[in-house]
Design a protein that fits this description.
Layout: E1 15-16, E2 20-22, E3 28-30, E4 37-38, H1 54-65, H2 70-80, E5 87-91, H3 97-103, E6 108-113, H4 116-122, E7 130-133, E8 146-152, H5 158-164, E9 165-176, H6 182-188, H7 200-207, E10 208-222, H8 225-234, H9 237-240, H10 243-250, E11 255-268
Length: about 270
């Protein structure tokens, strides 16, 4: 059991029980039937049901389970394995497809997402992982309690990541490369721009040293309409594109497409 959780309200240590977690000041957080703890206090929520909704989570699960991103996942696991993290964090873990693979490289894993829909599904995957509903803006973990943190296509608060990582610990950020889902974006927008270098990189340098970048690129052949729809639904493009273009893509019977992933590695400054 993970012993490094802290109360999201007062920051005292949390004791985990079979049905709830509580701190010495009497704040208590129920354990859900699926085994996860909800450590997202209502005052930290910016909406009633933050993060990915149930439809997005279901689409992502179906797409990932079909194995289209396996090469990317295996590369991530291959980068983590030699680090042998005692405690790994998966920040914004979604429905946990990556988490279970990455957890095999670590002695203990804590995975969280702001979406209850996502964690509900994730928690059923592996009871040895500590699953939390929590935000990357207020990670309910003690200072310097983790050896590695991964954020895969999910938002990151670099100061919070730095706080929970030990000096020298690894930060792995997976982000889209310029060509990621190019053909899908071409079908959805009049003009497709390459993904830009992220603004957060400057902020990162305050707490982290750049270590290395890995690139994973391949072509995917989405074989049927259901898969095209799943991919569309699990990306933010579903909401960004015009209704007209979206409807056109929803009717495609197949799509050949580039996948382009960047994995940026940093080390926590001492
Ligand atoms: C594109 S999905 C990626 C999920 C997962 N890492 C994957 O690749 O399958 C982005 C995830 O970030 C979550 N998210 C958004 N804001 C968040 C926050 N402030 N803290 C934690 N998770 C957040 C969403 O609910 C969603 O599950
Ligand atoms: Zn408390």
């Amino acid at each position: 059991m993970n012993r490094t959780l802290r109360c999201p309200l007062c920051h005292d240590a949390l004791t985990l029980g079979a049905s709830a977690a509580h701190c010495p000041r009497g704040h208590s957080f129920d354990r859900a039937r699926e085994g996860y703890f909800n450590l997202l206090p209502v005052q930290h929520k910016n909406s009633l049901d933050p993060g990915d909704d149930a439809d997005m989570v279901a689409a992502r699960r179906a797409f990932l389970e079909a194995g289209f991103y396996s090469r990317f996942r295996d590369t991530l696991a291959g980068l983590l394995a030699p680090l042998q993290p005692a405690h790994l964090i998966d920040s914004g873990c979604g429905e946990g497809w990556y988490t279970t693979a990455l957890a095999t490289t670590a002695q203990a894993t804590t995975a969280f997402d702001i979406s209850k829909n996502a964690i509900k599904r994730a928690a059923k995957r592996d009871a040895a992982i500590t699953w939390l509903v929590a935000s990357s803006n207020a990670i309910p973990l003690e200072e310097a309690s983790a050896d590695a943190l991964v954020a895969i296509f999910s938002p990151l608060d670099t100061a919070e990541a730095a706080r929970v990582l030990k000096p020298g610990a690894a930060l792995l950020i997976a982000a889209p490369g310029e060509k990621h889902l190019w053909e899908l974006r071409e079908a959805l927008y009049d003009e497709v721009r390459p993904h830009q270098a992220e603004k957060w990189q400057e902020e990162l340098q305050r707490h982290f040293n750049f270590h290395s970048e890995a690139r994973v690129q391949f072509t995917m052949n989405l074989p049927g309409n259901a898969t095209v729809q799943q991919l569309l639904k699990m990306t933010p493009h579903y909401w960004r594109a015009s209704r007209e273009k979206r409807t056109q893509v929803e009717q495609l019977s197949s799509l050949v497409m580039q996948a382009d992933f960047r994995i940026l590695q940093f080390r926590r400054k001492a």
